[in-house]
Recover the amino acids of this structure.
């Protein structure tokens, strides 16, 4: 059986579903969303739900700023309590050199309309009294940052997308993308073939594999990142706390659990989604350095997902040179959730040939041909 | 009932230690040496221990083995303590903290270096399967570490006051509690290193396991694993099924036969399989009124010999009946039962109120296989064995080379089968890590013959078919 759709979105994560949602809102509903597993099986269902605007590159700051505004309205749009809690992001620095960069970052963020502040260690402790600030040199804080509950966003989108009339098929794996010249003809899946000329690659950690099927090249590499959750407590921690130097982040969810992760600098790229002992030990040890009173708290689960990484830690958006109507929404390098609303809106606009709400020219895959990349320095976890 | 502790029992002798008091929300609570906080509070009549996290429904004594989180309280200022596995101590201060506790006010410290050890064989679960596997591997010369989360080993045997029967098994006529003690003694004799109070938290490649012991994380790097983690009880959906007073048969047995505390005054038993019938009879032995036993099937599920004992004691067993709801706000104050027809549909107009303060569920078990999934062992859904079970060879090896399974975790059968599977697994893992010996060869042979005998007759046919579907050749193993 061969089906036919005007567009096929590969990946039922936040960006695949978000793009479907924005297409649908504009009346473009002959769309199929495919996921090889369940919705949110990849990074969208495995991340810490952080929504941050304190970035170092102009593109990321703008994407994050507009996305934050859209997240503030998303409850109403999706008719769902998404548990968006704007307790801020507290970014800690342990070195003078980094603190100096923080000052510059704040300047740029302020210039672009993000209301972040540079803080002394004592001011940081006022926000999180439990913090051990003995080694902290400085901090930045932005109140309108926060956390959201990823599963509710995913399912909120999925419900609205289905209502609009867009089809979603889970447990359907794309096995090939058939092209003729520079045109897409067909998407082959584990459940049959689908005729289409437009494909959106929102496959997260599997994006470079999907691009390869179409004969296009993107430089994305999946790298495992791990995360955990503790038993719940009454709210005591308002902001997400992060440190680039330690690679750690942690926040308290609306349910009261502490959710947090830490990056392993020696992590080998690859599609490994298992929890490790390295994480178990290093996360708990580092967390206790930050807040010693965590010593009596029980971790109840740990798991892992992928950062779909690019050489400059910035996403890849828009079409590719080799194939027509093959759109990329990937390479988010660990911050795909927080920029998704704006990214998905712009992607929908590009697919429909409309003027994009934000200029994303510098985020196209062609940038990797230049030697002069602007690397995003604000990646954590 | 002012005293819920059992002082006279036809079979069990509760040897209580000295009497002392601890503080519960300003009230002095009596406890005996060796009693858990939850047991002492239950004996004092407390039913509501905490509240559920989302809907804030009352939660009370439930699993009794540290798994369900229905008994979390603050102990000496430390929140989220599992009071059902924490021993009461003189002068302790215990209080309820509701669904969510305050973040700890003090740093309890890191406790120094983590324990990390290289070992040869890790056996997980100290029931009949794990004990037997440990014994066989150790008596051939392996260094065996046996981990069990309980203080007492023996698995479910420690709660079984009834005699095992059957003509072909060595243990016929012996009570479960005694079989458990004998196996434990034998394990000690052959040099098995026993880690009680050691909860297995997770599996990490390659064959590393993490353990929580005394609130500390321990890591063991093993060469081979026998997983004998047993089963979890099935639950039943009905209105108010989360009220304190609705218990699984396992929780009732722990409370009554290990802690020596009666669960209540009037018990409605759901399920007439062997577990329902045996626990029903144990309740009678402990002096509790079993008001009736209901069974959804048109006939009694368990052995006739158990059913007859119950009937002789005047307890009605009603087939083709189910529970519609539990009555009560903070705890069980009754239940509504009704008839069901041959298609399992409720028969209108047959609803009947039953006066009871305990509803005991004995509606079957499911293999506890989370650890094996974590280790990437291939699973199969086999209804005849109670749910998802690992694929295994005739030697009880899973699809992960060096990881073996035995007992209820491999499929729900009974204690003798578990012990026989343990015997095979223990011999096979020794052979894999060393070589075949006269003892391993004979152990496997005898145990396989034993299993064939156990899986005969009307009760044996079902598991026999189940085992057939999930047994694979060694070539499939990684």
């Amino acid at each position: 059986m061969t089906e036919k759709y005007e567009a096929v979105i590969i990946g039922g994560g936040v960006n695949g579903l978000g793009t479907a949602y924005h297409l649908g809102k504009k009346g473009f509903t002959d769309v199929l969303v495919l996921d090889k597993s369940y919705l949110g099986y990849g990074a969208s269902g495995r991340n810490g739900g952080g929504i941050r605007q304190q970035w170092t590159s102009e593109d990321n700051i703008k994407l994050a700023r507009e996305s934050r505004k859209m997240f503030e309205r998303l409850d109403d749009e999706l008719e769902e309590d998404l548990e968006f809690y704007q307790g801020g992001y507290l970014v800690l620095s342990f070195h003078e050199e980094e603190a100096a960069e923080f000052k510059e970052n704040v300047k740029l963020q302020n210039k672009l309309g993000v209301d972040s502040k540079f803080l002394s260690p004592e001011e940081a402790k006022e926000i999180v009294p439990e913090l051990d600030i003995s080694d902290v040199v400085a901090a930045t804080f932005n109140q309108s940052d926060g956390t959201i509950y990823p599963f509710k966003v995913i399912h909120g989108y999925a419900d609205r997308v289905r209502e609009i009339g867009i089809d979603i098929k889970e447990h359907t794996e794309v096995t090939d993308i058939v092209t003729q010249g520079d045109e897409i003809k067909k998407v082959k899946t584990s459940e049959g073939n689908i005729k289409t000329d437009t494909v959106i690659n929102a496959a997260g950690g599997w994006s470079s594999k999907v691009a390869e099927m179409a004969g296009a090249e993107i430089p994305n590499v999946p790298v495992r990142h791990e995360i955990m959750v503790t038993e719940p407590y009454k709210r005591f921690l308002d902001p997400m706390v992060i440190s680039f130097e330690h690679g750690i982040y942690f926040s308290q969810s609306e349910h009261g659990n502490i959710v947090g992760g830490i990056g392993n600098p020696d992590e080998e790229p690859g599609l490994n989604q298992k929890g490790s002992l390295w994480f178990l030990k290093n996360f708990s040890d580092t967390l206790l350095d930050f807040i010693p009173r965590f010593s009596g708290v029980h971790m109840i689960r740990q798991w892992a997902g992928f950062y779909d990484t690019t050489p400059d830690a910035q996403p890849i958006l828009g079409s590719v040179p080799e194939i027509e109507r093959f759109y990329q929404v990937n390479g988010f390098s660990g911050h795909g959730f927080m920029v998704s609303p704006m990214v998905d809106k712009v992607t929908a606009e590009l697919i429909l040939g409309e003027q994009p709400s934000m200029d994303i020219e510098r985020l196209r895959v062609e940038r990797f041909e230049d030697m002069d990349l602007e690397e995003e320095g604000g990646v954590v976890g | 009932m002012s005293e819920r502790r059992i002082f006279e029992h036809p079979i069990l002798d509760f040897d209580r230690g000295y009497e002392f008091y601890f503080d519960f929300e300003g009230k002095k609570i009596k406890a005996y040496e060796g009693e858990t906080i939850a047991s002492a509070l239950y004996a004092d009549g407390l039913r509501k221990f905490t509240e559920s996290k989302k809907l804030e429904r009352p939660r009370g004594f439930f699993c009794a083995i540290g798994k369900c989180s229905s008994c979390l309280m603050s102990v000496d200022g430390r929140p989220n303590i599992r009071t059902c596995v924490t021993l009461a101590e003189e002068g302790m201060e215990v209080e309820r903290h509701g669904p969510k506790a305050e973040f700890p006010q003090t740093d309890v410290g890191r406790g120094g270096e983590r324990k990390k050890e290289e070992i040869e064989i890790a056996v997980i679960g100290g029931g009949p399967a794990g004990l037997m596997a440990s014994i066989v591997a150790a008596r051939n010369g392996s260094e065996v570490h046996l981990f069990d989360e309980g203080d007492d080993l023996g698995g479910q045997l420690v709660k079984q006051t009834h005699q095992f029967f059957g003509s072909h098994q060595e243990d016929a006529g012996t009570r479960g509690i005694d079989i458990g003690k004998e196996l434990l003694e034998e394990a000690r004799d052959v040099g098995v290193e026993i880690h009680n109070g050691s909860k297995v938290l997770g599996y990490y490649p390659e064959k590393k396991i993490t353990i929580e012991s005394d609130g500390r994380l321990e890591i063991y790097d093993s060469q081979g694993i026998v997983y004998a983690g047993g089963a979890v009880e099935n639950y039943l959906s009905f209105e108010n099924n989360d009220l304190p007073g609705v218990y699984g048969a396992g929780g009732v047995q722990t409370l009554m036969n290990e802690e020596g505390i009666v669960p209540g005054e009037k018990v409605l038993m759901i399920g007439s399989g062997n577990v329902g019938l045996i626990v029903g009879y144990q309740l009678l032995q402990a002096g509790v009124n079993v008001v009736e036993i209901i069974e959804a099937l048109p006939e009694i599920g368990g052995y006739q010999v158990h059913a007859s004992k119950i009937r002789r004691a005047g307890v009605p067993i009603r087939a083709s009946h189910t529970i519609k709801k539990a009555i009560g706000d903070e705890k069980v104050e009754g239940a509504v039962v009704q008839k069901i027809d041959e298609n399992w549909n409720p028969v209108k107009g047959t609803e009947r109120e039953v006066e009871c303060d305990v509803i005991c569920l004995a509606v079957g078990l499911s293999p506890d296989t989370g650890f094996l999934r974590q280790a990437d062992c291939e699973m199969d859904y086999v209804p005849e064995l109670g749910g998802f079970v690992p694929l295994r060879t005739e030697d009880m090896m899973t699809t992960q080379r060096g990881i073996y399974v035995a007992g209820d975790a491999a499929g729900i059968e009974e204690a003798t089968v578990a012990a026989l599977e343990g015997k095979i697994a223990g011999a096979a893992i020794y052979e894999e890590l060393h070589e075949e010996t006269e003892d391993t060869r004979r152990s496997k042979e005898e145990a396989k013959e034993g299993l064939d005998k156990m899986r005969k007759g009307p009760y044996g046919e079902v598991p026999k078919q189940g085992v057939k579907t999930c047994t694979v050749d060694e070539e499939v193993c990684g």
